[in-house]
From TrEMBL:
Its main location: membrane. It comes from Microbacterium oryzae. Residues 13-247 form the ABC transporter domain. It catalyses: a polar amino acid(out) + ATP + H2O = a polar amino acid(in) + ADP + phosphate + H(+). GO terms for molecular function: ATP binding; ATP hydrolysis activity; ATPase-coupled polar amino acid-transporter activity. Gene3D superfamilies: P-loop containing nucleotide triphosphate hydrolases. Its EC number is 7.4.2.1. It is a peripheral membrane protein. Keywords: Amino-acid transport, ATP-binding, Cell membrane, Membrane, Nucleotide-binding, Transport. SUPFAM superfamilies: P-loop containing nucleoside triphosphate hydrolases. The lineage of its organism: Bacteria, Bacillati, Actinomycetota, Actinomycetes, Micrococcales. This is ABC-type polar-amino-acid transporter.
Length: 251
């Protein structure tokens, strides 16, 4: 992991033979997956195939049962790794936005900067405002989450994440809980982030987004990677019956 004097650095992720079991339920059965620095990889697959668990192993919200996960060149399960330091560099955006309901939009975007990064209030607010402008919510500082649409709340969650200067962003079905008319705004922001060179691992059912934005698509089923390749190839010309069947159901 690079130190914080290199805020522009983008992390890659290298996952090899990743296993995760919950009791006797083996959810990840030896997953290999690579996201190079600056690359956008979309992870797709049926519900229950282990996508969220895989994402959660990358920032150690779940502890892997076996295999290797490297983030920015460091093995995350290495006992010497500072988990807080790792998480500080890895942004995560969930299906449920998880904003603090009792805090304003601006406060939602400054609290972790102040507590975790130890930034002063003024600097934190400056960074937050910059990122709120980036997601098109420049005039929303004083609103509370329940005064916003789902799409706006998700954009705040993205601005909050970006305010921590992440080197890698994980998205877990960021548009699945949104009204159809607000999905496009969130996807447009993710597309802009990708264009800016952010490393992104995105679990999504948005095949058009995957086709246009992802460098590669990885299809998981039953805890293993079944098919992967350039987005256009995997989505337009899937090789495996399982991927063909999945596409028929989501498109
Ligand atoms: P996906 O995101 O692809 O829908 P998940 O990774 O959420 O799949 O879940 C895969 C499997 O792991 C499911 O069978 C789910 O019940 C199980 N699972 C996920 N998290 C936990 C947990 N914390 N404890 C027990 N089982 C879990
Ligand atoms: Mg999931």
């Amino acid at each position: 992991m690079t130190d914080s004097s290199q805020p522009e650095a983008h992390f890659g992720v290298t996952i090899q033979g990743l296993r995760k079991a919950f009791g006797s339920n083996e959810v990840l059965k030896g997953v290999d997956l690579e996201v190079r620095p600056g690359e956008v990889v979309c992870l797709i697959g049926p519900s229950g195939s282990g996508k969220s668990t895989l994402l959660r192993c990358v920032n150690l919200l779940e502890a892997p049962s076996g295999g290797s996960v490297q983030v920015g060149g460091r093995e995350v399960t290495d006992p010497d790794v500072d988990i807080d330091e790792l998480r500080r560099h890895v942004g995560m955006v969930f299906q449920q936005f998880n904003l603090f309901p009792h805090l304003t939009v601006l406060e939602n975007c400054t609290v972790a900067q102040i507590k975790v990064l130890r930034r002063g209030r003024e600097e934190a607010q400056r960074v937050a405002r910059e990122n709120l402008a980036k997601v098109g919510l420049a005039d929303f500082d004083e609103r509370y989450p329940d005064q916003l649409s789902g799409g706006q709340q998700q954009r705040v969650a993205i601005a909050r994440s970006l305010s921590m200067d992440p080197h890698l962003m994980l998205f877990d079905e960021p548009t699945s809980a949104l009204d159809p008319e607000t999905v496009g705004d969130v996807l447009a922001i993710m597309r802009a982030l990708a264009r800016d060179g952010m490393t992104m691992l995105v679990v999504t059912h948005e095949m058009e987004f995957a086709r246009v934005v992802a460098d590669r698509v990885v299809f998981m089923d039953g805890g293993v990677v079944v098919e992967e390749g350039p987005a256009e190839q995997v989505i337009s010309a899937p090789q495996t019956p399982r991927m063909q069947d999945f596409l028929k159901r989501v498109i």
